Amino acid sequence: MNRSRAVATFTLTTLLAAACGTSSSENDSQTTLRIWDYSAEQVEFHKKVGEQFTKEHPNIKIEWRSISQDEYKKTLPLAFQSRQAPDVFYWSDNAPATMAQMLSQQWIKPLHPSGTVPADFTGRWPSGSFVDGINISGGKTYGFPFSENLYWGPGYMFLNNDLFKKAGLDTTKPPRTWTELKAACAKIVSTTEAECIASPSKGRELQRIWFALAGGVKTDLFFDYKQGKFSLDDPDLLKTFSYIQELAKAGYIAPGTNDKNFSRQQFAAGQAAVYFDGTWVPSVWTSQGLASDKYTVAPHPNPDTGATGALARQFDGNKYWVGSQTKNHEAAWTFLEWMTRPDGFFVQEYYKAGFGTLAFTDNEKYVSDPAIKQIMGIAEQPGFRATVPVPVLKCPDIAKSKAYLEAISKRPDWEYEAMVEALVGGKPLAPLATELVRERQQILETKLKEEAAGGLKVSMDCYTFPDWDYTSDYGLDRYRG
């Protein structure tokens, strides 16, 4: 057994051992509903939520557990393999194909025991939030948007106010181009003792700076829906990566192959002036003692010639699911219905804690954190995010297809592995990206042809939208039929 699997097994054993002695049968006087996620910064919040829910529903006890993100990705699959999975769990990988993937793995049940959720439940979300192939399958509803998709997401640039002031820079006039970012870094490095950019680069952690910079070029996705192909080898994206390498070579990125926790601590401690990340980070800074008046949120910088792309706005907010092995289905539904009440306890406490934005309530009404308000103002600017095309809306049979899932299942972190290898080794990304794209594309195209021969109405045309321009929303009115 390799080390990662051993650690995951230990984590799973620890979680299950901690749960020993609790009830998991709805026939007992009190049902214990087990919920798993990896939101370590929300542990106290979840405890408060569980206590309030049980106060209102004395027959249901909430056991909400969080572990580190890396270990969670290993532990949850092991839990399903050993038939000891939680009742409700958090999972958002490979959106908007998340539901299709989990159905193929037999991980989920419908939200409601009957399969059909009440109209007053779906009415909490904007029209178009429940889509066949994304959170509905076979007439049954499996998911719901937890995070909204305009404000929520990566691509924001956080600036340390004190370090920018020491360097003679003004955070009200943040770097807006790649050249301006380099110039700001040069001043910061030469006039302070701090690093310019704290950027994690351990495995998938490289996504934070990559998403921010690639989002102004094409999208922050690894698939190009305009051309219908995997895109890491795109010349414009290769130039984006070369720019990151230039920053590192100039000494503007903190040295070391660091994880997000280390890089965040650098920023919070005033050891770095810039950090790229998402809507969720203000709550992290709060937990680390960094008040919102100590930093500024700005849009990510674009190429000097201007933005030619936008961060992806897609159906990726479906994150909490009912586990297929639960014996407490009714209790799971009761909790999720309670959790998503637009004016309920969960919503109000979530915003008090500054955790971000939700899809099922009025964000303008509840957001009070100054940093999140800055984020909302940035995301509302035209062209910052753009709704990307959705293959399943063009070809409904894509919901039954396994082709894309097979293509991305081969070395799921391959894109990050290639970028980290090139960054650490100081070599060009192009050869690694070319091999990656060739193999992923071959799997996708071959499997689609096999499925089409078997009767599914699928083809590469389902993944190709030549009338999309990367910077504007691909609206629902643009799907034929």
Folded structure, characterized:
This is ABC transporter substrate-binding protein. Helices cover 40% and strands 12% of the residues. It is an alpha/beta fold and 481 residues long. A 5-stranded mixed β-sheet has the order 2-1-3-14-4. Strands 8-11-7-12 form a 4-stranded mixed β-sheet. It is globular.
Radius of gyration: 23 Å
Show unreliable segments: 1-10, 18-27
What spatial order of strands do you see in the largest sheet?
2-1-3-14-4
- Would you identify the CATH H-level superfamily of the largest domain? Periplasmic binding protein-like II
Number of helices: 19
Distance, first to last CA: 51 Å
Largest sheet: 5 strands, mixed
In terms of structural class, how would the helical and strand content be classed? alpha/beta
Give the helix proportion (percent range): 40-55%
Percentage of residues in DSSP E strands: 5-15%
How would you sum up the global shape? globular
Total of domains: 2
Number of strands: 15
Mean pLDDT: 92
List the main descriptive attributes of the protein structure presented here.
481 residues, alpha/beta, D-Maltodextrin-Binding Protein, domain 2, 2 domains, 5-stranded mixed β-sheet, 4-stranded mixed β-sheet, 40% helix, globular
Summarize, please.
The protein is an alpha/beta fold.
Topology, element by element:
Layout: H1 3-18, E1 31-37, H2 43-56, E2 60-66, H3 69-81, E3 88-90, H4 98-105, E4 108-109, H5 119-122, E5 136-137, E6 140-141, E7 156-160, H6 161-166, H7 178-191, E8 195-197, H8 207-214, E9 223-224, E10 229-230, H9 235-249, H10 260-268, E11 272-277, H11 281-287, E12 295-299, E13 311-313, E14 320-323, H12 329-339, H13 345-352, H14 363-366, H15 370-379, E15 385-387, H16 391-394, H17 403-409, H18 414-425, H19 430-453
Parallel strand pairs: 1-2, 1-3, 8-11, 13-15
Antiparallel strand pairs: 3-14, 4-14, 5-6, 7-11, 7-12, 9-10
Helix pairs in contact: 1-3, 8-9, 17-19
